[in-house]
Amino acid sequence: MIEEKDWQVIKPRSSKKQYRVGILGATGTVGQRFIQLLDYHPQFKVTALAASDRSQGEIYANACNWRLPGAMPESVKSLLVEPPRAPLDCDLVFSSLPASIAAQAEELFARAGYPVFSNSSAHRMESDVPLLIPEVNHEHLALCNVQGKQRRYKNGAFILANPNCSAIALSLALAPLHGRFGVASVAVTTMQALSGAGHPGVASLDIADNVLPFIEGEEEKIESETKKILGRLGSDRVEHSPIAVSAQCHRVNVSDGHLLAVRVKLVHGAGLEEVREALASFRSLPQELRLHSAPEWPILVRDEPDRPQPRLDRDAGGGMSVTIGRIARDPVLDYRFVALGHNTIRGAAGAAILNAELLVAKGYL
Amino acid sequence: MIEEKDWQVIKPRSSKKQYRVGILGATGTVGQRFIQLLDYHPQFKVTALAASDRSQGEIYANACNWRLPGAMPESVKSLLVEPPRAPLDCDLVFSSLPASIAAQAEELFARAGYPVFSNSSAHRMESDVPLLIPEVNHEHLALCNVQGKQRRYKNGAFILANPNCSAIALSLALAPLHGRFGVASVAVTTMQALSGAGHPGVASLDIADNVLPFIEGEEEKIESETKKILGRLGSDRVEHSPIAVSAQCHRVNVSDGHLLAVRVKLVHGAGLEEVREALASFRSLPQELRLHSAPEWPILVRDEPDRPQPRLDRDAGGGMSVTIGRIARDPVLDYRFVALGHNTIRGAAGAAILNAELLVAKGYL
Amino acid sequence: MIEEKDWQVIKPRSSKKQYRVGILGATGTVGQRFIQLLDYHPQFKVTALAASDRSQGEIYANACNWRLPGAMPESVKSLLVEPPRAPLDCDLVFSSLPASIAAQAEELFARAGYPVFSNSSAHRMESDVPLLIPEVNHEHLALCNVQGKQRRYKNGAFILANPNCSAIALSLALAPLHGRFGVASVAVTTMQALSGAGHPGVASLDIADNVLPFIEGEEEKIESETKKILGRLGSDRVEHSPIAVSAQCHRVNVSDGHLLAVRVKLVHGAGLEEVREALASFRSLPQELRLHSAPEWPILVRDEPDRPQPRLDRDAGGGMSVTIGRIARDPVLDYRFVALGHNTIRGAAGAAILNAELLVAKGYL
Amino acid sequence: MIEEKDWQVIKPRSSKKQYRVGILGATGTVGQRFIQLLDYHPQFKVTALAASDRSQGEIYANACNWRLPGAMPESVKSLLVEPPRAPLDCDLVFSSLPASIAAQAEELFARAGYPVFSNSSAHRMESDVPLLIPEVNHEHLALCNVQGKQRRYKNGAFILANPNCSAIALSLALAPLHGRFGVASVAVTTMQALSGAGHPGVASLDIADNVLPFIEGEEEKIESETKKILGRLGSDRVEHSPIAVSAQCHRVNVSDGHLLAVRVKLVHGAGLEEVREALASFRSLPQELRLHSAPEWPILVRDEPDRPQPRLDRDAGGGMSVTIGRIARDPVLDYRFVALGHNTIRGAAGAAILNAELLVAKGYL
């Protein structure tokens, strides 16, 4: 009844071979984003849905309480929701299973020969699992081969993880600075959106007229994952970066879009304009390869004094750009700025899809 | 820097003659919507901008604090903001001037030969001004001729108004019921979005953790305009409908989308399923004519128990569909339901644009 | 009209016999309100706590995540949370158990000889259970005797219920009008606060930038309970009032305070000033008896155009007054107004406590 | 650690001489707080009201749109609102005038012999104006004498300022650490409430579903004022502290209560438990003197992982305590924690009143 083309954002840039895709955790907040972003995707077609909840056995139209603006894509309505177990009718899987379930379920999919693109935290810190942001550390995907050998996965299967939503936005902002000037330490204070907690997530009564200064496990994830993301690829593992990372995390009453107040200390001196320019001019491999979900600019620098803002900037670049503003010298560390990323697109479903697009382009699939 | 095509919603369906358009009140909330919706419009091209505030004399990029998600369209950035006085370099004007200024300014534009599509309340209740919703009372546009003669406007100029945002959503919901069963009385209780008050509008401190049971002039507008909209065209004026209309209006802490709890008493008996069907099957002249901004379905009926919702449904049909749910028999009047319309698209800028498209199609321009 | 003492924390008016009180559902939203309101109460002292969840066996300080502003009262911190089963160390119980559990648990407490003051919906519509609002239908408490005999409860035990939170505010507003002019029909549209759904209640992601047009069972409760509340006491039951009642219910993003847009049709004609005066001058038995929790004015009429508002008016009369504003003639029914009541004080815990105070005063305890 | 009497409305501890007080800026957000907090104050009685807006010449009941929960105190309703010019019928003035007007108006009041307790930023950084927080730097009030001499004020008149709302909460949190271990640098990221911007302040449309990363002048104020507050009193001026201070400020959609994420580097090593203890045990002169508005504990340390929270903790100590939680070692600086203060009580009106109470106790008035 609702015209789905009105809701469609990302458009195909070319026609290529199509991979059949399974979504694990298909009824959740991130699962719905996967389905929305993959509707009309030129390379991936959703052919299987799985969930760990009681929705198993129903068709998706009945199993899923669709909570995104716009209508559920027609193409998935009649798919049956299955348990998150191989075999599934697909060539690869995107997983947004809860961490507790993902640990084993994703492992079993890889063991059964499926490439697994995981948004879960279960395997992120394992030494042979790439923690990938294509613009930041695409060379880490070489770990896929290491992992396949060590774990004896067949058919080129692997588990590849995207980082935590805040760690992605932070790492994207740090990447150009680290590359040019070296980052010695970073202190980030987050103001994170409600959708990051999934559904039902935070009780409305707890966040009404309020801010919550605690998100379970979040500060630890940002502090540890950022070091792995920015680490150097060794022979069979990533040497974590020695950057000192401090995170203070807060939940604010915003639907989508994580805001990060960042302070950085640089290894090498740099002028304010150099810092701005490093951020504003940053482009990387996904832009070169013109990957379907790659934004033209991974970082958008805005010079107005009151940007970025979640409601105005979260959808920039189709939700795949990080918007940065308020770049200034800092009296305690060297520089400070504010960064904003869409937590369920660039920070979750879109991140995993971009990873998969990179692996297609690099011949891993 | 932000790719504006990512933000674009409505796409041209065909290429036709282009009219040059001026926007009066271009820097305000509705003015910005006009510009957003007219970007890439097949028939209208924005060539002039005017505002009554101190932004006059600056280019739009500097004059306007753009507050819509997505970037300001490139095509208007370098246009100069002029005072709202003829002549302007355009064939017709869309006006979202404040009512106090609109009264005289719009009159002077019409007198100078410009067709005026007004979103202001200034002229709505004048007997020779059509108060137009193309799906509801397109025959009222015949008043344009009456008006032109009475007021001695030249060149086919006229003032044509779209109704108040809530009155539009209400009238669209009533139209199919009135047409089939007759509406004897209607009681509507609104929960209206913040954008309806423009900018700065409601102070955040007044609406935080709160509901405001008062919107100046709103109940009166809904009660009087609805009777004119649903009235019958006489020889030189509209005979207002005798329907009894009661409105209680509230401001809620929602960015966009007015929610209306409606109860109606019908003249002729009707079963619940007939009522639902009358709403769900409603289409009218704009759909027949395939007007560019006309949604495929002016009314979308949803049968889930918890719809419509502002955040999920306001953008349905590109913001031009009214979503209706919770249709049920009512113990006091006959039927009740909940309706939701996007107040700055279907309720303001989109309404005026659809009106202009109809007048183009009917040869009035 | 509002006097500042209405806003003070409620203070004892005299020293009387103290009853030992048990709270069923002590860890929930309403349970916490019971404990807060009973701290320093002159007649009731909390001596036992019970809950149906996994908090059983812990002391309250550990079992309860206290979510009200202000600290947990010292006096309950070391009480053990027990299962909701007799015997409990108390003379009477206040119950805010979930309806599914309350049905049997409350019955068993009454059977064991405890007077039960229930905020649950489980027994409200049973013919021998008083659905009591002391200002509205205090004569209904005579049903306690009927019930005791019919059910063979010992020691003067009974189950006495307070109505649904919205039904209480509505009935208080209708009582003076019904008494003087007769109410023929009433149509109420509610905008209800988050705390009414308990905790965790509504997911924050569902209500952010949104209104929900659905609260399970709420419209039915308001429509049926109001008729019983305003009904006439017969020999062994209440004859429900023939008033036609229509309710449309919405959840809004407000922490506390239900707002009701009300339209009424009266049996006997009345002028606007008479209607206002009937509301503003309303006082009843609890005020005469100077019950501890009775507000000086059960209804506060405000004449400003933008009142009542949840954030500003919910705590009037210590949360026990209903604030009414925007009284006006209505084109469809006869009169309309907006009413506001604190849903967890006058609409829940405070309602049950006032009921208990009345029964003490009347010698039922 | 929190005792329930901390939450009670502040009560007189003894009866003393009463001073007649004038409020400058009486109709604003902070002006209303002054009036609310001074109602029933044992030492100060409001006898004069002034405002710079068009409310002059009306009685306060008509001039002021009272926006605090609870009713306007009876005692001020019939006071006339006068222009902010001497003479006023009072012994001293509290000023919350806008900075632009305060600069001259406050100077003229002091010149006319009135002690001026200013919440405005106009004179804060002048070398002979004490920037006072009684628990932190009460010795700075000796500057009043210096100032009186230098400026030749008569009758012991002076201008005494309280700091910016965020600077107060920050300085209170730093004071015990600075006293015991020395603070070398501090980086604070604020999430500030709407009431801090006054009324109308932030437009609701700008903050709905959003965070604003910019508050004009706020970062500068926090960075400079904190150094003066923590500076050492010299012979005729304060030597600003050499502490490095970095502030990033954000506006969040919360009515009252500023949340501060703080990181500190200490001069002398200290263990986590020592840091916690230094904060939790902090008391100072106002507590010794038992000043009326002094909270029993200026800092309340909470050990739950998810506190402090604005809605739950802002009213602690009658709004005069700062609540601190999440104390932990920090990988970049030495320690981090989250602090919460009520911005219009401890951060504005209450701050000025406590200052005045101290000056009474010290014989300056």
What is the helix tally of chain A?
Answer: 13
**In order across it, which strands form the biggest sheet of chain A?**
3-2-1-4-5-6
Largest interface: chains, residues each: A-D, 42 and 42 residues
In total, how many beta strands of chain A?
14
Percent of residues in beta strands of chain A: 15-25%
The unreliable regions of chain A are 1-15
The 3D shape of chain A can be described as: globular
N- to C-terminal separation of chain A? 37 Å
The helix content of chain A is: 25-40%
Oligomer: homotetramer
Radius of gyration of chain A: 20 Å
Structural class of chain A: alpha/beta
Explained architecture:
The structure is a homotetramer of 365-residue chains. Chain A is an alpha/beta fold and 365 residues long. Chain A has 13 helices and 14 strands. Chain A has a six-stranded parallel β-sheet with strand order 3-2-1-4-5-6, with helices on both faces. In chain A, strands 10-7-11-14-13-12 form a six-stranded mixed β-sheet. Chain A has a two-stranded antiparallel ribbon with strand order 8-9. The first copy, chain A, starts with 18 loop residues before the first strand and ends with a helix. The model of chain A is unreliable at 1-15 (pLDDT under 50).
